[in-house]
Amino acid sequence: VETVPWANYWDRLPQDIGSGTMADIFWTNTSNFGLYVDNGNLINISEAIGDDHDEWTQSVVDLYTRDGSLWGVPQLTDSIALFYNVQMLEDAGIDPATLHWDPSGDGDTFLPAVQQLTVDSSGVTAAEDDFDAEDIATYGFNSQNDLQAIYIDFLASNGGQYQDGDSYAFDSPEGVAAFQYLVDLINTYHVSPSAAETNANGDLSRQLFVQGKMALFQSGQYSLPAMADADFDWAIAPMVEGPEGRIGVVHGVAAVGNAATEHEEATLEVLRWLGSAEGQVPLGATGAAFPAAVEAQSSFTDYWENQGVDTSEFIAAAERETAAAPLGPRANAGANAMAPYFEQMFAGSLPVEEALAQAQQAANEAIAEE
Known about the structure:
Structural class: alpha+beta
Shape: globular
Number of strands: 14
Number of domains: 2
């Protein structure tokens, strides 16, 4: 087993495949696997293993299905929920499970709540006229340039799409309204940290929440281990509800087989085990990740229950209507092309309508290049 740091993984992976030194089995995410499917680098799991496997979370199976075949063995999955500071919400008299956002303003309970939860160093809330936005002690929420935890979820729950097939489709009336709402939380209402800070440090909001300096933090199971450093009571509520309900991103990691392996039978034997409940219990039993094998998922929930944490909202999120994580053989190229426009948009230096139009055009042009 060779561990490759995240910072180097996606640069090294194509080099190893190209040079013929790739491992027999490796992990991939949805943004990258399509390219290797189309290039013939992966073992066809549907043909090699078929239906003889333990039950997997269907949403992750769907993510790794391309051209009618499954190309990876689902390993772990993430869904989205809302972490909250129990005392802060109780003091404010806010029930996090009832929060609803609406860009039209009709029935919007979310903005008033996060304004009440955002407090400057003098104890004045963002709902009050003399609030000092230059000296904030506690933020209400983590609106930021975060694809998985924030903007695809808000986009989908407003009836918009991130992608239509492999092409990007977020530049729509629903998309403009969703992104404008998020950008306004940062730059108009000041209930979230500035994009200058969160663009530079994507983990800043999680750090602020753990330090007791943020009341609501929307994220996935991957943030649970960091919560061990929090010295206050926190809990998990459903993700924020939008006009179309609660529609969150479900992402997953898959183990894939190298089509060029010299040990095909052994590779398939290991892949079968990695896909089994037995093979995935070690992922859940330490609280490290939520297994994609359904019968192994109780190992994760039991671990966190023993820590006094109810993780059932993550399971509920995965069982509701969901939005797909980024897909397509050139999804990384698309993400890189749109990145500067999104950074400027969240910073308030590029209007939302212009940013989405330019970002979508640049991303679709990037994925069309050979």
